[in-house]
Protein backbone atom coordinates (compact mmCIF):
# COMPACT_ATOMS: atom_id res chain seq x y z
CA UNK A 1 0.00 0.00 0.00
CA UNK A 2 1.63 3.27 -1.11
CA UNK A 3 1.63 6.45 0.92
CA UNK A 4 1.13 9.75 -0.88
CA UNK A 5 2.81 12.81 0.72
CA UNK A 6 0.57 15.71 1.44
CA UNK A 7 1.03 19.06 -0.35
CA UNK A 8 2.20 20.59 2.95
CA UNK A 9 4.96 17.99 3.36
CA UNK A 10 6.15 18.57 -0.23
CA UNK A 11 6.24 22.30 0.34
CA UNK A 12 8.33 21.97 3.54
CA UNK A 13 10.78 19.61 1.79
CA UNK A 14 11.24 22.11 -1.06
CA UNK A 15 11.86 24.97 1.39
CA UNK A 16 14.41 22.91 3.31
CA UNK A 17 16.22 21.98 0.08
CA UNK A 18 16.21 25.62 -1.02
CA UNK A 19 17.63 26.78 2.35
CA UNK A 20 20.40 24.16 2.20
CA UNK A 21 21.29 25.22 -1.34
CA UNK A 22 21.39 28.88 -0.28
CA UNK A 23 23.58 28.13 2.71
CA UNK A 24 25.95 26.07 0.55
CA UNK A 25 26.14 28.89 -2.00
CA UNK A 26 26.88 31.44 0.77
CA UNK A 27 29.57 29.11 2.13
CA UNK A 28 31.23 28.87 -1.31
CA UNK A 29 31.14 32.65 -1.77
CA UNK A 30 32.60 33.23 1.71
CA UNK A 31 35.35 30.68 1.11
CA UNK A 32 36.33 32.27 -2.20
CA UNK A 33 36.35 35.70 -0.56
CA UNK A 34 38.65 34.53 2.23
CA UNK A 35 41.02 32.83 -0.23
CA UNK A 36 41.11 35.90 -2.47
CA UNK A 37 41.62 38.32 0.43
CA UNK A 38 44.22 36.40 2.40
CA UNK A 39 46.16 34.59 -0.34
CA UNK A 40 45.60 35.65 -3.93
CA UNK A 41 45.27 39.42 -3.50
CA UNK A 42 48.41 39.62 -1.40
CA UNK A 43 50.36 38.06 -4.23
CA UNK A 44 48.79 40.11 -7.00
CA UNK A 45 48.84 43.47 -5.28
CA UNK A 46 51.93 45.57 -5.97
CA UNK A 47 54.03 46.16 -2.90
CA UNK A 48 55.35 49.63 -3.66
CA UNK A 49 57.83 49.46 -0.80
CA UNK A 50 59.56 46.37 -2.22
CA UNK A 51 59.64 47.08 -5.96
CA UNK A 52 62.89 45.72 -7.40
CA UNK A 53 64.37 48.18 -9.88
CA UNK A 54 67.34 47.39 -12.08
CA UNK A 55 70.60 48.26 -10.37
CA UNK A 56 72.28 50.64 -12.74
CA UNK A 57 76.02 50.47 -13.44
CA UNK A 58 78.19 53.46 -12.70
CA UNK A 59 78.27 55.29 -16.03
CA UNK A 60 79.75 56.58 -18.21
CA UNK A 61 82.44 53.99 -18.76
CA UNK A 62 85.80 55.68 -18.44
CA UNK A 63 89.50 55.04 -18.14
CA UNK A 64 90.97 54.78 -14.67
CA UNK A 65 93.14 57.48 -13.16
CA UNK A 66 96.17 55.31 -14.04
CA UNK A 67 95.29 55.59 -17.76
CA UNK A 68 94.00 52.02 -18.26
CA UNK A 69 90.70 50.39 -19.12
CA UNK A 70 90.49 46.61 -18.68
CA UNK A 71 88.01 44.22 -20.31
CA UNK A 72 87.47 40.60 -19.29
CA UNK A 73 86.24 38.48 -22.22
CA UNK A 74 84.20 35.41 -21.26
CA UNK A 75 83.64 33.13 -24.25
CA UNK A 76 81.30 30.13 -24.44
CA UNK A 77 80.15 29.50 -20.88
CA UNK A 78 77.63 26.92 -22.18
CA UNK A 79 75.73 27.04 -18.87
CA UNK A 80 72.99 24.51 -18.25
CA UNK A 81 71.16 23.92 -14.96
CA UNK A 82 73.87 24.51 -12.38
CA UNK A 83 75.09 21.77 -10.07
CA UNK A 84 73.21 19.00 -11.92
CA UNK A 85 74.86 19.83 -15.26
CA UNK A 86 77.93 17.67 -15.77
CA UNK A 87 81.22 18.86 -17.25
CA UNK A 88 82.45 17.80 -20.67
CA UNK A 89 85.96 16.83 -21.69
CA UNK A 90 87.62 16.89 -18.29
CA UNK A 91 89.96 14.35 -16.73
CA UNK A 92 88.31 11.25 -15.27
CA UNK A 93 89.55 12.25 -11.82
CA UNK A 94 87.67 15.57 -12.15
CA UNK A 95 84.39 14.37 -13.63
CA UNK A 96 82.51 13.31 -10.46
CA UNK A 97 83.02 16.70 -8.84
CA UNK A 98 82.64 18.95 -11.87
CA UNK A 99 79.52 20.90 -12.92
CA UNK A 100 78.38 24.33 -14.04
CA UNK A 101 79.47 25.54 -10.60
CA UNK A 102 83.08 25.14 -11.74
CA UNK A 103 82.35 27.68 -14.46
CA UNK A 104 80.83 30.05 -11.92
CA UNK A 105 83.80 29.64 -9.60
CA UNK A 106 86.25 30.33 -12.43
CA UNK A 107 84.43 33.56 -13.31
CA UNK A 108 84.48 34.75 -9.72
CA UNK A 109 88.23 34.08 -9.52
CA UNK A 110 88.88 35.97 -12.77
CA UNK A 111 86.89 38.98 -11.58
CA UNK A 112 88.77 38.96 -8.28
CA UNK A 113 92.27 38.75 -9.74
CA UNK A 114 91.84 41.07 -12.74
CA UNK A 115 89.30 43.58 -11.37
CA UNK A 116 88.08 44.54 -14.86
CA UNK A 117 86.28 47.75 -15.73
CA UNK A 118 83.93 45.86 -18.07
CA UNK A 119 83.03 42.18 -18.47
CA UNK A 120 82.10 41.06 -21.99
CA UNK A 121 80.30 37.74 -22.64
CA UNK A 122 80.80 36.80 -26.30
CA UNK A 123 77.98 34.30 -26.84
CA UNK A 124 76.80 30.77 -26.07
CA UNK A 125 76.27 32.02 -22.57
CA UNK A 126 73.80 29.20 -21.99
CA UNK A 127 73.69 25.86 -23.75
CA UNK A 128 70.04 25.93 -24.75
CA UNK A 129 69.42 22.21 -24.99
CA UNK A 130 70.70 21.73 -21.42
CA UNK A 131 68.96 24.76 -19.91
CA UNK A 132 65.47 23.85 -18.66
CA UNK A 133 64.53 27.48 -18.06
CA UNK A 134 66.47 30.12 -19.99
CA UNK A 135 65.74 32.91 -17.51
CA UNK A 136 66.89 30.88 -14.50
CA UNK A 137 70.07 29.84 -16.31
CA UNK A 138 70.80 33.44 -17.30
CA UNK A 139 70.49 34.54 -13.68
CA UNK A 140 73.08 31.93 -12.70
CA UNK A 141 75.38 32.65 -15.66
CA UNK A 142 75.70 36.35 -14.92
CA UNK A 143 75.48 36.10 -11.12
CA UNK A 144 79.22 36.69 -10.49
CA UNK A 145 79.20 39.78 -12.71
CA UNK A 146 76.08 41.12 -11.01
CA UNK A 147 77.49 40.43 -7.54
CA UNK A 148 80.64 42.37 -8.43
CA UNK A 149 78.70 45.49 -9.46
CA UNK A 150 80.97 45.81 -12.51
CA UNK A 151 79.29 46.87 -15.78
CA UNK A 152 78.87 43.94 -18.15
CA UNK A 153 77.81 43.44 -21.74
CA UNK A 154 76.77 40.38 -23.73
CA UNK A 155 76.09 39.19 -27.25
CA UNK A 156 74.40 35.95 -28.26
CA UNK A 157 75.91 32.82 -29.77
CA UNK A 158 74.31 30.07 -31.81
CA UNK A 159 73.12 28.01 -28.80
CA UNK A 160 71.54 30.63 -26.50
CA UNK A 161 68.08 30.53 -28.12
CA UNK A 162 67.71 26.74 -27.99
CA UNK A 163 66.01 26.82 -24.58
CA UNK A 164 62.76 28.64 -23.73
CA UNK A 165 63.34 32.16 -25.09
CA UNK A 166 63.78 33.66 -28.55
CA UNK A 167 66.87 35.71 -29.41
CA UNK A 168 64.94 38.95 -29.04
CA UNK A 169 63.54 37.86 -25.68
CA UNK A 170 67.01 36.84 -24.52
CA UNK A 171 68.60 40.19 -25.36
CA UNK A 172 65.69 42.12 -23.89
CA UNK A 173 65.96 40.09 -20.68
CA UNK A 174 69.75 40.51 -20.53
CA UNK A 175 69.46 44.27 -21.04
CA UNK A 176 67.17 44.53 -18.00
CA UNK A 177 69.46 42.63 -15.62
CA UNK A 178 71.39 44.40 -12.86
CA UNK A 179 74.50 46.29 -13.99
CA UNK A 180 74.02 45.20 -17.61
CA UNK A 181 74.94 47.72 -20.31
CA UNK A 182 73.69 45.42 -23.08
CA UNK A 183 71.10 46.60 -25.60
CA UNK A 184 68.64 44.75 -27.81
CA UNK A 185 68.77 47.39 -30.56
CA UNK A 186 71.15 50.27 -31.27
CA UNK A 187 69.88 53.79 -30.64
CA UNK A 188 69.26 56.21 -33.47
CA UNK A 189 71.33 59.28 -32.47
CA UNK A 190 69.00 61.65 -34.30
CA UNK A 191 65.60 60.26 -33.29
CA UNK A 192 66.76 58.88 -29.92
CA UNK A 193 64.81 55.68 -30.40
CA UNK A 194 65.74 52.03 -31.03
CA UNK A 195 66.70 51.11 -34.60
CA UNK A 196 64.63 47.97 -35.13
CA UNK A 197 65.29 47.69 -38.88
CA UNK A 198 68.76 46.16 -38.41
CA UNK A 199 69.26 42.40 -38.63
CA UNK A 200 69.79 40.56 -35.36
CA UNK A 201 69.40 41.34 -31.69
CA UNK A 202 72.31 42.71 -29.69
CA UNK A 203 73.87 45.23 -32.07
CA UNK A 204 75.03 48.22 -30.04
CA UNK A 205 78.03 50.32 -29.09
CA UNK A 206 79.53 51.53 -25.85
CA UNK A 207 81.71 54.61 -25.44
CA UNK A 208 84.63 54.77 -23.03
CA UNK A 209 85.63 58.26 -21.95
CA UNK A 210 89.04 59.60 -21.06
CA UNK A 211 90.67 59.58 -17.64
CA UNK A 212 89.32 61.82 -14.86
CA UNK A 213 90.87 65.29 -14.91
CA UNK A 214 92.12 65.03 -18.50
CA UNK A 215 90.86 67.27 -21.29
CA UNK A 216 89.23 64.15 -22.80
CA UNK A 217 87.39 63.18 -19.62
CA UNK A 218 84.05 64.01 -21.26
CA UNK A 219 84.93 62.65 -24.71
CA UNK A 220 84.80 59.13 -26.07
CA UNK A 221 88.36 57.93 -26.66
CA UNK A 222 87.54 54.23 -27.19
CA UNK A 223 84.47 52.72 -28.83
CA UNK A 224 83.25 49.18 -28.30
CA UNK A 225 81.14 47.66 -31.07
CA UNK A 226 78.89 44.64 -30.37
CA UNK A 227 77.38 42.60 -33.19
CA UNK A 228 74.92 39.72 -33.42
CA UNK A 229 76.48 37.04 -35.65
CA UNK A 230 73.29 34.95 -35.53
CA UNK A 231 72.88 31.19 -35.12
CA UNK A 232 72.13 28.84 -38.02
CA UNK A 233 71.10 29.38 -41.65
CA UNK A 234 70.37 27.45 -44.85
CA UNK A 235 72.26 28.55 -47.98
CA UNK A 236 71.43 26.83 -51.27
CA UNK A 237 70.06 23.88 -49.34
CA UNK A 238 73.18 23.58 -47.20
CA UNK A 239 73.02 24.06 -43.43
CA UNK A 240 75.63 26.54 -42.25
CA UNK A 241 76.22 29.19 -39.62
CA UNK A 242 74.71 32.63 -39.90
CA UNK A 243 76.65 35.78 -40.69
CA UNK A 244 76.79 39.50 -39.96
CA UNK A 245 74.43 41.14 -42.46
CA UNK A 246 74.82 44.24 -44.60
CA UNK A 247 72.30 46.20 -42.50
CA UNK A 248 74.58 45.71 -39.49
CA UNK A 249 77.70 46.73 -41.41
CA UNK A 250 75.95 49.79 -42.82
CA UNK A 251 74.96 50.86 -39.31
CA UNK A 252 78.53 50.28 -38.17
CA UNK A 253 80.03 52.38 -40.96
CA UNK A 254 77.70 55.26 -40.16
CA UNK A 255 78.49 55.02 -36.47
CA UNK A 256 82.22 55.05 -37.14
CA UNK A 257 81.95 58.14 -39.35
CA UNK A 258 79.98 59.95 -36.67
CA UNK A 259 82.62 59.23 -34.03
CA UNK A 260 85.46 60.27 -36.30
CA UNK A 261 83.63 63.48 -37.11
CA UNK A 262 83.54 64.53 -33.46
CA UNK A 263 87.21 65.53 -33.61
CA UNK A 264 86.41 68.25 -36.16
CA UNK A 265 84.72 70.11 -33.33
CA UNK A 266 87.69 69.80 -31.00
CA UNK A 267 90.12 72.62 -30.35
CA UNK A 268 92.70 72.17 -33.12
CA UNK A 269 95.47 73.56 -30.90
CA UNK A 270 95.23 70.40 -28.77
CA UNK A 271 97.10 67.30 -29.90
CA UNK A 272 94.58 64.50 -30.49
CA UNK A 273 94.74 61.06 -32.09
CA UNK A 274 93.80 60.92 -35.80
CA UNK A 275 90.99 58.42 -35.15
CA UNK A 276 88.88 57.24 -32.26
CA UNK A 277 90.12 53.61 -31.82
CA UNK A 278 87.52 50.85 -31.53
CA UNK A 279 87.25 47.16 -30.64
CA UNK A 280 84.54 44.78 -31.88
CA UNK A 281 82.96 41.76 -30.18
CA UNK A 282 80.82 38.98 -31.67
CA UNK A 283 80.50 35.19 -31.49
CA UNK A 284 80.94 33.33 -34.80
CA UNK A 285 84.27 33.70 -36.67
CA UNK A 286 84.24 35.29 -40.11
CA UNK A 287 85.14 33.23 -43.23
CA UNK A 288 88.31 35.28 -43.78
CA UNK A 289 89.85 33.53 -40.77
CA UNK A 290 89.35 30.13 -42.43
CA UNK A 291 90.60 31.43 -45.77
CA UNK A 292 93.68 33.19 -44.37
CA UNK A 293 96.53 33.70 -44.65
CA UNK A 294 96.91 34.42 -40.94
CA UNK A 295 100.13 36.04 -39.79
CA UNK A 296 101.82 36.39 -36.39
CA UNK A 297 99.76 33.77 -34.56
CA UNK A 298 100.08 33.94 -30.78
CA UNK A 299 98.34 31.10 -28.95
CA UNK A 300 96.93 27.69 -29.85
CA UNK A 301 95.33 26.93 -33.23
CA UNK A 302 94.00 23.40 -32.74
CA UNK A 303 90.50 23.46 -34.19
CA UNK A 304 89.12 23.94 -37.70
CA UNK A 305 87.43 27.33 -38.02
CA UNK A 306 83.63 26.89 -37.91
CA UNK A 307 82.05 29.80 -39.77
CA UNK A 308 79.43 30.68 -42.37
CA UNK A 309 79.64 29.75 -46.04
CA UNK A 310 78.74 33.38 -46.75
CA UNK A 311 81.42 36.07 -46.76
CA UNK A 312 79.56 39.32 -46.12
CA UNK A 313 82.68 41.51 -46.12
CA UNK A 314 83.17 42.05 -42.40
CA UNK A 315 86.96 42.23 -42.61
CA UNK A 316 86.82 44.57 -45.60
CA UNK A 317 84.40 46.80 -43.68
CA UNK A 318 86.60 46.90 -40.58
CA UNK A 319 89.68 47.79 -42.63
CA UNK A 320 87.85 50.53 -44.53
CA UNK A 321 86.52 52.03 -41.30
CA UNK A 322 90.11 52.32 -40.01
CA UNK A 323 89.08 52.72 -36.35
CA UNK A 324 88.67 49.02 -35.44
CA UNK A 325 92.06 47.85 -34.15
CA UNK A 326 91.04 44.31 -33.18
CA UNK A 327 87.96 42.10 -32.91
CA UNK A 328 87.23 39.33 -30.42
CA UNK A 329 85.27 36.13 -31.01
CA UNK A 330 84.36 32.76 -29.48
CA UNK A 331 82.59 29.69 -30.89
CA UNK A 332 85.68 27.51 -31.51
CA UNK A 333 86.48 26.50 -27.93
CA UNK A 334 89.84 24.88 -28.67
CA UNK A 335 91.26 27.94 -30.40
CA UNK A 336 92.65 30.64 -28.13
CA UNK A 337 94.99 32.44 -30.49
CA UNK A 338 95.33 35.95 -31.86
CA UNK A 339 96.21 36.36 -35.53
CA UNK A 340 96.67 39.11 -38.07
CA UNK A 341 94.57 39.33 -41.24
CA UNK A 342 95.64 42.05 -43.69
CA UNK A 343 96.85 44.17 -40.78
CA UNK A 344 93.72 43.55 -38.69
CA UNK A 345 94.09 41.63 -35.41
CA UNK A 346 91.49 39.14 -34.22
CA UNK A 347 91.54 37.05 -31.03
CA UNK A 348 89.66 34.00 -29.81
CA UNK A 349 88.55 34.00 -26.20
CA UNK A 350 89.16 30.27 -25.72
CA UNK A 351 86.63 27.95 -24.08
CA UNK A 352 85.57 29.24 -20.66
CA UNK A 353 82.68 27.00 -19.61
CA UNK A 354 82.95 23.46 -18.29
CA UNK A 355 79.76 22.24 -20.00
CA UNK A 356 81.15 23.29 -23.36
CA UNK A 357 83.34 20.89 -25.32
CA UNK A 358 87.09 21.10 -24.83
CA UNK A 359 90.11 18.86 -24.40
CA UNK A 360 90.65 16.85 -21.23
CA UNK A 361 93.73 18.14 -19.46
CA UNK A 362 93.62 21.44 -21.36
CA UNK A 363 92.42 23.98 -18.74
CA UNK A 364 89.54 26.34 -19.44
CA UNK A 365 90.69 29.88 -20.09
CA UNK A 366 89.73 33.54 -20.31
CA UNK A 367 91.08 36.54 -22.22
CA UNK A 368 91.83 40.00 -20.87
CA UNK A 369 92.11 43.13 -23.02
CA UNK A 370 93.70 46.30 -21.66
CA UNK A 371 93.52 49.67 -23.41
CA UNK A 372 96.08 52.26 -22.34
CA UNK A 373 96.21 56.03 -22.73
CA UNK A 374 99.24 58.02 -23.78
CA UNK A 375 100.79 60.35 -21.23
CA UNK A 376 101.29 64.00 -22.06
CA UNK A 377 103.45 66.42 -20.12
CA UNK A 378 101.00 66.62 -17.24
CA UNK A 379 97.80 64.79 -18.16
CA UNK A 380 96.56 61.65 -19.89
CA UNK A 381 95.99 61.97 -23.61
CA UNK A 382 94.12 59.77 -26.11
CA UNK A 383 94.52 56.04 -26.77
CA UNK A 384 98.09 54.82 -27.21
CA UNK A 385 98.16 51.02 -26.85
CA UNK A 386 96.04 47.85 -26.68
CA UNK A 387 97.38 44.76 -24.91
CA UNK A 388 95.91 41.31 -24.32
CA UNK A 389 96.71 38.18 -22.35
CA UNK A 390 95.00 35.03 -21.11
CA UNK A 391 94.63 33.16 -17.83
CA UNK A 392 94.10 29.45 -17.17
CA UNK A 393 91.81 27.86 -14.64
CA UNK A 394 94.69 25.74 -13.40
CA UNK A 395 94.58 26.53 -9.68
CA UNK A 396 96.92 29.52 -9.86
CA UNK A 397 95.30 31.36 -12.79
CA UNK A 398 98.48 31.27 -14.86
CA UNK A 399 98.92 34.38 -17.01
CA UNK A 400 100.35 33.77 -20.48
CA UNK A 401 100.60 34.90 -24.12
CA UNK A 402 100.79 38.60 -23.33
CA UNK A 403 101.08 40.71 -26.48
CA UNK A 404 100.52 44.18 -27.91
CA UNK A 405 97.74 44.31 -30.52
CA UNK A 406 98.03 47.97 -31.40
CA UNK A 407 100.36 50.86 -30.68
CA UNK A 408 99.71 54.34 -32.04
CA UNK A 409 103.41 54.79 -32.77
CA UNK A 410 103.50 51.75 -35.04
CA UNK A 411 99.92 51.68 -36.33
CA UNK A 412 99.14 51.45 -40.00
From TrEMBL:
Record SUPFAM superfamilies: Metallo-dependent phosphatases
Keyword Transmembrane: yes
Protein name: Probable inactive purple acid phosphatase 28
Lineage: Eukaryota, Viridiplantae, Streptophyta, Embryophyta, Tracheophyta
Chain ranges of the Calcineurin-like phosphoesterase domain: 69-334
Keywords: Membrane, Transmembrane, Transmembrane helix
Species: Solanum pennellii
Record carries keyword Transmembrane helix: yes
Family matches, as InterPro entries: Calcineurin-like_PHP, Metallo-depent_PP-like, PAP14/16/28/29
Domain of life according to the entry: Eukaryota
Transmembrane segments: 15-35
